[in-house]
Each structure stands twice: as structure tokens, then as C-alpha cells.
Amino acid sequence: MRNQIFFVKSKDVSYCGRCGSTDLYYRDTCQRIWLREGDEHRMIGIRRLKCRNCGAYHRELPDFLAPYKHYETEVISGVLDEVVSADDMEDNCPCDSTVASWHHWLMINELRIDGYLKSEGSRLPGFTEELLKTGVSLLKYLRSSCQNWLEIILRFIYNSGGFLVSAWADGYAPTSV
Q1: Which of 37, 53, 78, 177 registers the highest number of CB atoms within 10 A of its CB?
Q2: Going by DSSP bridges, is the β-strand pair 57-59/40-51 parallel, antiparallel, or unpaired?
Q3: Region for 137 from its dihedrals, namely left if φ exceeds 0, alpha if ψ lies in -120 to 50, beta otherwise
Q4: How far apart are CA 98 and CA 79, in angstroms?
Q5: In Å, how far are 31, 35, 78, 167 from 135, measured between CA atoms?
Q6: Is the pTM of this model over 0.85?
Q7: Measured CA angle at 141 (ends 65, 131), to 5 deg
Q8: Is the pLDDT of residue 1 over 50?
Q9: HSE on the CB side for 85, CA within 13 Å?
Q10: Strand pairing partners for 34?
Q11: pLDDT (mean) for 113-120
């Protein structure tokens, strides 16, 4: 049986995460593994763009994929919120060390995510300086009020030129079970 590859092209304007320029051009396409809930394993073609201003390369990821992760964001957020379990995933279940690294990744990025959300939120009309000074976690609020909280956060952070730290950045290595 022949493998299918799905190609993704954004309708949004792409920004360079390094310099903020919108002068990006199509460079090439790379393949990416896409693991879905159930036993679905697909390949997806991701466009690579190059910035004419600073020369940086960027991958144009769809909302359902997180940077450096193969599982779709719905599965990752479901596991993090303890809504999706190994029984729901059938044969395509992430191993225990993958689940542990997702939890660690979220934990080490909580303050960074809140900082991005509060910083950008304070610039929007209707918000005040109180937003920056409040002890309320906007991440926790989003997690409790939106099913697609991870997609919202990732799109917001990466489209505004921000980034999240890898689970491995602080030397984290899950122990084998």
C-alpha cells in the first residue's frame, strides 16, 4: 500500500521569529511524522520558509502540531489534562517517558507561558496594568476554560516570535520504566 503525504500551507502571514520581518519566501518542504489518537500514523509535508531580511529558516507548522513533537496537540493536551489515557490510545500510546517529558516540558515553561500571555494581553485594548501584577495564572485559566488551550498557546507564542524551552534544556532525562 502506498503511503500518503499531506501538505500544509498557511493562509496567515508568516513572521520571522528572529527579526519580525514578513518577507519570507518558500524554500523547500520537509516531511514530518504526525501521530494521532488511535492507531493513525501519517506523514505530513511542512513548508520551510527563509527570511529575506536575516536569512533564518522557519517551518510552517499547522495548529495541530507542536514544535519538536510528533503527537498532535490534542493528544498532548489530553494527556497533560489526564483526559486521554493509554486505553484511549490503543496501540499508538506514547510511552511513559514521553508522557513524563511532556509534563516536565509544561512545568518548566509555565512561567514563560504566563509571561507571554500577560505581556501581550497588557497591550490589548480593555486590559490594564493590573493584568501584569495579578497572581492569576492565565495558563491555568485557559486550561480550565478551553479544550484546545495548547493550540491557542502555541500559536500565540510562536506566531509572535516567542519560543518555549525544551524538556531537555535543563538536563532532564526521564528514567526508563
Answers
A1: 78
A2: antiparallel
A3: beta
A4: 10
A5: 42, 36, 26, 25
A6: no
A7: 110
A8: no
A9: 1
A10: 42
A11: 86
